[in-house]
Amino acid sequence: MGEESSFNTASAAQVVYIMGFAGAGKSTLAKEFSEFLRDLGYRVVIANLDPGAETLPYKPDYDVRSIVRLADIMRRESLGPNGGLIRATEIIVERISEVIDYLQRLARLNDWLLVDTTGQLELFAFRELGERIVTMLELPSVGVYLVDASMFSKPSDVVMTQLISLAIQYRLGINVITIVNKIDSERIPVRVLMEEFFFKPEDFKQRISGSDLGVLADLAYDLIDSITRYLPPTRVITISALKRTGFDDLYSILHETFCTCGDMT
């Protein structure tokens, strides 16, 4: 306590925390986007922070499963999957200094650090783990909130997605970009809906009034003004991580966000 960190962030990597609900395609994005960045000439490393991952499509440069694995903790402490994941994240927090030390060493030698977070969004974004890592790592950081395009079946889904994105942003204290994945399988024009939400909110309200019904629709309608007050208009980025489509746009908005890091307005 009381000692200043000797870690020099001036030449360290930019950190991208890839977050999202289970099945959003986080690990696929980590793999494919890392290769995209390497093709541009960058030095890129990937950290896996999911203790429950059985297989990964990439070879992690840091793997939290070296500290704890879900299957082991379930067997040892007679826990189910949900309790096991919570207990596993507690163990990671208990050994957080080890995690931070390794990530900082990786960051010293590379341009980008992609962090593939827990399969369950809430374990990283809304519990102690995410906040501790972001705060202690002390590196330029941006969050990517990855959303499966199939989750958008009606206009109010856009509102709820942006509400979650805003909550993550202020919980972790970093800029968060909402990225829509699996756009090749979308059933509705997600980009159109999201652009209307940001740039024509009154038209979007009318769309909700005309198509959505029930309490959730009423709540979404009332939330639009509050969300847009704190979440400024932004370009809508849609990708297919598997096919690497939209990666130029993703790279561009990440670059822009890092250039304005710290501006939460």
Describe the structure.
- The chain is an alpha/beta fold and 265 residues long.
- The protein has one domain: P-loop containing nucleotide triphosphate hydrolases (Rossmann fold, 3-Layer(aba) Sandwich).
- The protein is 50% helix and 13% strand.
- It has helices at residues 26-39, 70-77, 81-94, 96-108, 121-125, 128-137, 155-172, 190-199, 201-211, 215-230, 247-259; strands spanning 14-19, 44-48, 62-63, 112-116, 141-148, 175-181, 237-238.
- It has a 7-stranded parallel β-sheet with strand order 3-2-4-1-5-6-7, with helices on both faces.
- Helix 7 links the parallel strand 5 (141-148) and strand 6.
- Helix 8 (190-199) packs across helix 9.
- The chain is globular and about 50 Å long.
- It starts with 13 loop residues before the first strand and ends in a 6-residue tail after the last helix.
- Residues 1-8 have low confidence and may be disordered.
Please compute the radius of gyration using only Cα atoms.
Answer: 19 Å
Strand content: 5-15%
What multimeric state do the chains show? single chain
Class based on secondary structure composition and strand pairing = alpha/beta
Output the strand order for the largest sheet: 3-2-4-1-5-6-7
Task: Please report the total strand number as a whole number.
Answer: 7
Q: What proportion of the residues is helical, as a percent range? A: 40-55%
Whole-number mean pLDDT: 90
What's the SSE pattern? EHEEHHHEHHEHEHHHEH
State the end-to-end CA separation: 34 Å
CATH class: Alpha Beta
Return residue spans where pLDDT drops below 50 for at least 5 consecutive residues: 1-8
- Under CATH, the homologous superfamily reads P-loop containing nucleotide triphosphate hydrolases
